[in-house]
Amino acid sequence: MLPPGTVSSEQQVILTDYLDNGGSIYLEGTNIGSDHNGTEFWDCFGAAYLGQGALHNEIEVIQGDADNFAHACVFGYASNTYADIYINRLAPASGQSLLHSQDQFSRIINNEDDNFRTIASTLIMGALANDDIVSKKINLMKCYLAYLLNYQEAQIWLSDTSLDFGTVNPGDSQIKKLYIQNTGQGQLILSEIQIIGDGFIYEGPQELVIEFGTYLEIEVIFPAFNQGTYEAELVMQSNDPELMEVIIPLTGSCFAPPAIYVIPSEFIMEVSSGATAIFPLQILNNGGMELEYSLEIIGQSGIRNQGGPDDYGHNWQDSREEEGPVFVWNDIASTGIDSGLTGNNNYVDIELPFPFYFFGALQGQVLISSNGYLTFGTDGIDQSNDPIPSTAEPNDLIAPFWDDLNPGSQGKNYYLHDEETASLIIQYSDWEKYTSGETYDFQVVLESSGNILFFYNQMGSSLNSATVGIENHDATDGLEIAFNESFLENELAVRISTIPDWIALSSYYGEVITGQPDLIELQIDASELAPGSYEAILLIHSNDLADPELTLSLHLQVLGTSNDNHQIAQNPLLFQNYPNPFNPETKIDFFLPADGYMELVIFNLRGGKVKTLVNDIRQSGLHSVFWDGIDDNGKRVTSGVYFYKIKTDIYSITKRMILLK
Amino acid sequence: MKRLTILGFIIFFILNLFLELNGQLLYVWDHENNSFSFPDPDTGEYIDGTLAISSLLTEIGVDFERGFDLPANPVDYDIILVMLGSFCES
Description:
A: Immunoglobulin-like, 8-stranded antiparallel sheet, B: 3-stranded parallel sheet, 2 helices
């Protein structure tokens, strides 16, 4: 019995008889000709075997495929040159070279007589890489099967079943290529090639003819003349009996990039000591594509002085302080999602449900470690806690209780996206210390504002061997709240924040489409502030590539005397309606700096009152009302120009809008 | 009698159609030199020629059988793929 890799004389007889009875054989191996040269079996393949180093004038020299073949041969093919020598060992004798071209890797010889069809290959098919454009391995095999089965029909192969041009800027014309190959022996004829629909161009011939094993490319153009979203179809008729009509969906969008604009460009605010106030921030999109933004407040001044700041501006407080965070235990064991975190020194990876900035870097996902920490880095399994900062991994670290922990027999890890508070809660329940088996219940809460909170509910007695704090990605900044010391206790809360206590935003992220601005409230709380100046900055991150980070200065002057209504007088703001022009309905936003009586009225061009939308006392802040084009008499008004006016006891402002039919 | 003949023909036709579509059309004879393996250029996993061909046939959607032995009478197969692999004898 000959070893594998060689066909014995008995096996050759079986295979030769098989061919004589109408069978087909594909024979693959680098040395096939050497072993079987001169036999009746080898004659069936119509190939001449060439010795190592022979000149192969009949066969194009190939250079391997990105070293794949050279790498493939574990027994000494050190380079493409050697690979060429070893695998170019066949030349046509009675047979011919099938698909003989550089592109198709031509070490394939086919042969046929009245009874059989054969292919001999010194090319190891599996060592070929599939191609980005034409899937070589698959297509070659389809061609071989078509030949061996003597399939006489045309057989179409397409590089793509659809073409998506994505979103491009106006005027930024795009071209995509579609590759079409014929893997059947019959001539492939494509006719009536056309695009049905608007927005795309095909300028090639109406008819294409593709021979066995070859391919053509056709181009589809997305000219992106006008802004909009486009859908069409590239359609052609084919003589492939399995696919008589080819339909390729075409999609593309043409929009200007998002362009952020904010009002105001800085805040200079005055508030009486002990008072509260609200200031509006308007975020507009002057581009075409949707603007995505997120807000981050950084300020080192304020009443917080317990811990920090780090270089970035993080401070921390705990619930033992009078102004510190309040301990609450919002148990999510029944409402949260089981993260699936199991085992010792393990982690799970979850996506963050909102944009979250950590030391100024946008994070999209986080690793939850079984050792009681989160990281935006890659090391989620470190059981040996370090001080902060430490260059040793893990970095990009949020450590509520980093110690040698594991889930033990009862431990569970849950997470919950609380949409109402725009926060992500991650909870370790009955989590065990590896050495003692004591259990611990604690939470990390990430807020969309960037705030980080730790809540410690029921903690085991071993609390002085853990790290508590945060650290940036390269350990050049961080806050060490505790390291191997007595600090934690049951029902303790810790808050880490860059935001001074005197300021908050109504929202920290959002999307803005063109013409529909977002309105954000800056909520100022001077109830605990002494008279004086306070500073902070507001960072606005967005997908406006021309201006991805805006910095707004926030200047707060706290006055020494409190007025009656605890508000400093400001004027109301009236924003442009959206949509405008409109039909049938439009939205009007306005901002009131203080509680009070107000009117919002629609007038026509002649100054006549058309509709009273608001006529009562409203609270301070942002408000929205809608107008559906119906007047005070319940009748639909005619199309044209209208005015809307807001009026308070001390101020009025008017804007213009257009109703279309 | 005539009905039985027609019924028999229909059964024969369906059976043949079934065999044509789902029968043992291809046989992959894994007769490779075991010293040879290589990283799949697409996945990086070490495979051999037989596994590579098998993956291709599966991807194309062609039924096949695979074995280490050459059937003594392989006439039922339309194609035999003889995989000998690679070995250095020079």
